[in-house]
Amino acid sequence: MGRYMISTMIVFEENCWLHPSIRLLFQKWFVLNDFITTNYSLRDPNKLFVLLYSNTSTLVLPNYHEIIPNVFSFTQIVKVFSEDGLGKVVEIPAGMTARDLCQLLVYKSHCVDDNSWALVEHHPLLGLERCLEDHELVIQVQASMSSGSRFLFRKNYAKYEFFRNTHTFFPEHMVAWCQETNRTIPPSQLLQNFLATSSCPEIQGYLYVKDVGRKSWKKVYMFLRRSGLYCSAKGTSKEPRHLQFLADLEDSSIFTVITGKKLHGAPTDYEFCIKPNKCRGESKELRMLCAEDEQGRTCWMTAFRLFKYGIVLYQNYKIPLQRKTLLSHFSAPVRSVSENSLVAMDFSGRIGRVIENPLEAQSAAMEEGHAWRVRHHLLYICPLFFLPAVIHIAQMWFHGRITREESHRLIHQQGQVDGLFLLRVSQSNPKAFVLTLCHHQKIKHFQILPCEEDGQVFFSLDDGATKFTDLIQLVEFYQLNRGVLPCKLKHPCTVVAL
């Protein structure tokens, strides 16, 4: 009975969002239950225990508190930094995962919880960074980091993008099964091969490898399997006698190298590395690799994650979707009697009128909210007739006077998925703006020019064919319509201050 109750609670915890303290309680139940069922017979009534959860978040074990490890009873300080360099100190329990900490930071920072936030392990001295997987324990990762390393809190739209667009992540010429059979494998079958431990998928292709302890790089043919990373000593041969073992997946993590050319003399900009978990700050233990293009690097790094974590990644991906489905059943707000007696009113004319159309009422509410935000941010900034020129300043997708290189860096950091975008002030034309958009892992720039008609200034990115009174209208239009762009605007590239 006790085992069944605990299992039910764990399923509930995985399918909906819980406050970290409540989630911690379930984790305690689960760990302690497993310990008892593994080491003691529940058939003996003298060995049953009672678990009490007090206000001080401590475990009270009347019978076996001496022998059961209280792995979740202590807390530790963690400092997390945002993109602006400012940090936030939080006290978290030892059992808190990266997903839980991200949700806590989203709550404290009043961000939109769109399941795209990530905790990044950043090593500035080595020029390395990686996004923690949602199930990883933050304290455990912090224990393996050097003193100069830190956690970053940022968006990562590409964390599970390979589950949605598999074909863009795994080119056929890099999947061994496609090359050997000369056939195209369906995306669902390809993912199933990666997730099933009984299958043996393989990624292959040329990579540049940095010789350990040297500055030179050499181009060799590589094979990535569940057992590890191998290189061929004879061309593209995969015979066992020609394969040389390079790195293990189980006790290593894969990182993006952010200063490859400058720090390591990499031949291209698409460097990544395999770092042993025991390595804290020694660059000699790093296995430096470099791909020909961004698609190749993404393929190798994604395959590494799938080989190492397998079905756990899919479970991490599904939990927010299941939570969204569960919460959709309770999406209708419970209104009080006084709220039900309210009606929508329009006071734009000389007299007020009741808005009976629900769609019109919703539109009016959105316009009123938008107008309130404008008044809130611009009340003491400028006169009313200058609003179209500065109304975009408070938007999350507007980044002001950043450089072209800085916009590339932000897009790279947040995932390079289709539709990731930001707006910035043009460097060549101070009166114009630039839309920076990612499509097919390539970054493109579109200039937004002001044009005047009948004394009013409009904005357009298609030479005046489609004009907008402000940049907010422009962005909202291209979020719904592709127009002259290669894809719709989907994901705003945003920087949050903790």
TrEMBL record:
Residues 74-158 form the Ras-associating domain. GO terms for molecular function: insulin receptor binding. Residues 397-493 form the SH2 domain. Its main location: cytoplasm. Keywords: Cytoplasm, Phosphoprotein, SH2 domain. Residues 200-309 form the PH domain. One of its GO terms (cellular component) is cytoplasm. It comes from the Eukaryota. SUPFAM superfamilies: PH domain-like, SH2 domain, Ubiquitin-like. Gene3D superfamilies: Phosphatidylinositol 3-kinase Catalytic Subunit, Chain A, domain 1 (3.10.20.90), Pleckstrin-homology domain (PH domain)/Phosphotyrosine-binding domain (PTB) (2.30.29.30), SH2 domain (3.30.505.10). One of its GO terms (biological process) is negative regulation of Wnt signaling pathway. It is found in: Cytoplasm. Transmembrane segments: none annotated. Pfam families: BPS (PF08947), PH (PF00169), RA_2 (PF21989), SH2 (PF00017). InterPro entries: BPS-dom, GRB/APBB1IP, Grb10_SH2, PH-like_dom_sf, PH_APBB1IP, PH_domain, RA_dom, SH2. PANTHER family: GROWTH FACTOR RECEPTOR-BOUND PROTEIN, GROWTH FACTOR RECEPTOR-BOUND PROTEIN 10. Belongs to the GRB7/10/14 family. This is Growth factor receptor-bound protein 10b.
